[in-house]
Amino acid sequence: MIWLDTIVQGLLLGGLYALFAAGLSLVFGIMRLVNLAHGDLIVFAAFLILVVVDTTGLNPFVSALIAAPALFAAGWALQRFVLNRVLGQDILPHLLVTFGLSVALQNGMLEVFSADSQRLRSGALESASIDLGPVTVGIMPLLTFASAVLVIFALNRIFYATPLGRAFRATSDDPVTASLMGINPKSVFAIATGLAMVTVTIAALYLGMRSNFEPSIGPARLIYAFEAVIIGGVGSLWGTLAGGAIIGVAQTIGAQLNPEWQILAGHLAFLAVLLVRPRGLFPRAVD
Amino acid sequence: MLETRGLTASYGQFKALFGIDMTIAAGECIAIIGANGAGKTTLLRSISGVLSNSPEMILHNGVPIGALPADAILKRGIAMVPEGRKLFPSLSVEENLLIGGQVRQGDRRWNLETVYELFPILRERRLSPGTALSGGQQQMVAIGRALMSNPELLLCDEISLGLAPVVIRDIYAALPEIRKTRAAVVIVEQDIARALTVADRVYCLMEGRVTLHARAAGLERAAIHAAYFGAGE
Known about the structure:
heterodimer; A: mainly alpha; two-stranded antiparallel ribbon; 11 helices; 3% strand; globular; B: alpha/beta; 4-stranded antiparallel sheet; 33% helix
């Protein structure tokens, strides 16, 4: 029974990693841009939610709702005025720029918010749980996982059932031909990054409610997000959810065997999947 | 309606067009012929905005559009069927058509229904991935996709390239229907005989220059030969 509990807890933890990864997966899938500042943007979003909580006294959920449009705008502007300029055949410029952004964000946050650990307080929700017979699950992990499924489902609907999603896929296939259809690839990319920042807001909400955060923890979140995207297969949103779940389960199984193995087990699972399926579990057919 | 004035274009150091002067009137059908490397595709890529030029080199209804990007050109009513068809692999046949009319719908004379009437086979294959179709059917999708924006000028680059003669005949059979909508059509074509049967006027290019400009009707073989291969050869 302990193993069933371990796997369920791992799956739920995977929801958090999938949330970290959803925005990265979206951006990488559409414009092949690896945003090395993704983890720091999650931490930045968490601080922004904290600022809203502190100034308005509202609960973190409502505060995230308020922060989301601002973060959409920030993502849009970041893409429009910075990242669009460095996109191209050569991957080095955008890696350098996003790496620089990562360093600048960490130091900027350190300056403004100090190195103190912070947390988004959610009251009774933090320790609430429900008994599901053989296993007991926390409400917060359950909410995290449900949010991840919802985010992936919503992104999938946008991708495959709306004109915007059609433009995303067409631009991802062939930006030059997409522009012959009247689509401005740079605008499409800006909207995609804006949308990614909305998913970053949701990831930040759960990051901040489930654990302490400080300006320096972004890069570690990036690693989990990146692993989830690669395990799932580039461009597959449901694959990203599966990738998150695999890392989560590997971590809880590792921790069950020996508490020191938790983090290592997640990375080993990533390497194992890469060995067997180098293109990930659900690679998009056209890549 | 459209005019190019001393249009030049280059790819880095390599100069592909040397001062092309050309006019296209509303509703007209123009054929551009010439050997490989003559600059035909470069000319269409310049007009459609894929290649950027000086603004004044291309005028649309008197407005300089030479420096506009491709998406702005499409919004002005100039659509292109690119060489090699370039369907979007991630999109179904129907989605490929829909994306053609997503930004500009024009007078809506062309819509999903009318495109399916023009090419009935596409209705049967509408849910297939665009790239799963035969070459001829893909070409129909590419033409339908461009029509969905209801262009006043349709640029067709090598629409018969690599297709069987019977398929080419079917595709060319659609041209009169397209011209009924008063759209001007520019076809870049290797098959000179076929181009001459549909075109009002012909431009022949050689090494980036216009070597022949004439009405298609009654054009002598010898004149085409001289323009195509160079006089005296």
